[in-house]
Known about the structure:
- The radius of gyration is 18 Å and the shape is globular.
- Helix 3 (114-130) crosses helix 4 (199-219) and helix 3 packs across helix 5 (229-236).
- The protein is an alpha+beta fold.
- Strands 1-2-5-9-8-7-6 form a 7-stranded mixed beta sheet, with helices on both faces.
- Helices cover 22% and strands 27% of the residues.
- The relative contact order is 0.15.
- It is built from 5 helices and 14 strands.
Amino acid sequence: MTQRDGSDAHASPWSDLDRPPLGAAGLRRSLVRAEGLWSSVDVVPRTGSTNTDLVARAAAGAVQEGAVLVAEEQSAGRGRLDRRWSAPPRSGLFFSVLVRPAEHEVPRARWGWLPLLTGVAVATALSASAGVDTALKWPNDLLVTVDGEERKAGGILAEAAADGGIVIGVGLNVSLRAEELPVPTAGSLALAGAKVVDREPVLRAVLRSFERWYVEWCAAEGDPGLSGLQETYAAGCSTLGRQVRAHLPGEQELVGEAVAVDGEGRLVIAGADGRREAVAAGDIVHLRPA
């Protein structure tokens, strides 16, 4: 999540022994199977954005559902509101996946749950594989606790592909050190006291978790209640129960308590007058108690 312009930016993958390169062949052997979701796993040394690249591959008909594209270094990753995301080589996990929910008869109205599903999959995988409790900030941030404070360690971005698929990108700070943080409010698994910062087992755990949640969600035709997704997301969402300020499209603003995530994945905010409003898109700020 930080920009590195030093001379070591494109050094040997083994120049930092704390950050070994990913093994593409091993990832394929462990993840790609005939009856599974994952159809291919590609690892590239560096790119601008894995989302941009995978959207282009999907448009060209070069990949199937379940394609995974991972970059050791990402120089122009994008978050919501076109925010930039970059980090030192091999310091994090930067990857995108392609899914086609229409092929599983999931109504388009329920596709908005995909970023939330991804958050649940990542958070549950990190707890099991790295021993790090990860909270979800609606709609797409991954938060960890560092020195008693909530910090952003990752983000999720879903984009439509021209072939009707959805590309979901994840950026996650794994071994980022304190001096490498772009801002003091950023965090990483290492700074949160992770028991494991080897990216390969963490990535395998995240992708397996995503596969399980996605398959169950599709089997329920995208129903967040029937699949258990809505309940699980609410249990791990640190936004709920907090006073928040929502910056909405059109420079509007809404302040109140986040009380629920509804069946469409929208954040329900109760204003001071008691009225509730469901927010489908916007930038959410967690407000500190007075």
